[in-house]
Amino acid sequence: MLSTKALISSITEVPETWIFEHYGKLSEKLIGQDVKIKSLFNTTDKIPSLVIYHKQGKYKFKDFSNGNGGSGVDLVMGIHGLTYGQASMKIIEEYNEYTMNNGDYALGKFKVHSRYRITEFCKRDWNVLDQDYWIQYNIGSKQLEEAWVYPLSFYKMEKSEDKEVKELNISGQYIYGYFRTNGDLYKVYQPKIREKKFLNVKDHVQGTDQLKYANPTLLIGSSMKDILSFNSFEWPIEVVAPGSENTMIRKEMIETWRHKYNLIVVLFDNDEPGVKAAAKYKKEFNIPSIQLKLSKDLSDSVKDHGVETVMAELHPQLKKLIKNGR
Quick one: DSSP state of residue 207? Predict the structure, then answer.
């Protein structure tokens, strides 16, 4: 007997949750929660780096291993290398096939799940373990305090779920808080925990509170650790870093800096996400980039090869850009 089920013909008729569940090969239905899985684009991904999350009534994704992000259609476009129209047709055809074989797609009971947020923390004094960790990147406690980076003895996270407050208390060594000059905590850095190395508390372009606008060149780096390693060179260059390489600094901020500096230059990691991010800054803002082909990033290069080697690699590139005025 032939099925009389009506087939859909528009991408807007396909439930977005089905797209993510189907192409993400999820083992659970999306009902308002966030899901973190291994990258669907990077086969070498060992730690889950792709987040499927709910925001303002829509599901989206962000892959932190390569910077991809967007809607369910964007996900399929990236996985299969298709245009928007091709990806939409593929989704429609496969959704029709799914419903013909399985019946109507059942939407789960939707409920927006709350996220953990940091509610308490406590600073502590620097110790020998902190010194040993940071000094390998040529970073001392004075530099850290000038950047408002402090060690934490613990922090507490809470979320409310079904009228119940759930708590997590995290303590131990190698926990660092990144603070604004007004005392607000905006990020927690845990270098020894690969799965939760960074916890973003508030959006902030790192290093902006420390800008003095006293030098002609501004460098956009990839992390606070890179900022501090670079500052240890004591070159007449100021440094900032976005929350991550995959987060573009706002156009308004870039334009303000253009009036403050003669040259703005990007130095990101030399892996695929870093190269792609540098290309975006070139395309969007015509900001040139330099590359450090030693270790993955600047601070690791300092640790692995030494300050003098890193300075010798970077100086000619910066000198050429400064001489040319760009």
Answer: T
- B/e letters for 146-155, b = 16+ CB within 10 Å, e = fewer, are ebbbbbbeeb
Tell me, yes or no, whether 123 lies in a domain: yes
Within-domain flag for 298:
yes
Is the entire prediction scored with pTM above 0.85? no
- CA nearest to 193, candidates 175, 169, 167: 175
Measure the CA–CA gap between 106 and 121, rounded to whole angstroms: 43
For the four alpha carbons of 254, 258, 261 and 265, in that order, the dihedral sign comes to positive
Average pLDDT of the chain, as a whole number? 88
Q: What span, in angstroms and rounded, lies between the C-alpha atoms of 265 and 281?
A: 9
Answer yes or no: is pLDDT of 325 > 80: no
Instruction: Pull the structure tokens for residue 77.
Output: 């476009």
Distance CA 139, CA 320 (A): 27
The answer to whether residues 185 and 252 belong to one domain is no
Task: Give the closest residue to 177 by CA, choosing from 146, 201, 204, 203.
Answer: 201
N-to-C CA span, the chain: 71
Closest CA to 147 of 232, 248, 23, 20: 232
Q: Domain of 185? A: 115-203
Examine residue 6 and state whether it is found in any structural domain, yes or no.
Answer: no
Indicate the range of 38-47, 83-92, 144-153 predicted with least confidence. Answer: 38-47
Residue 214: helix, strand or coil by DSSP?
coil
Query: Residues for the chain: how many in total?
Result: 326
Of the three residues 172, 203, 234, the one that is the final residue of a domain is 203
In a domain, 125, yes or no: yes
pLDDT (mean) for 144-156: 94
Amino acid at 224: M
Question: Which whole number is the average pLDDT over 114-137?
Answer: 91
For the stretch 195-223, pLDDT in tens is: 788 888 888 999 999 999 989 999 999 99
pLDDT for residue 274: 85
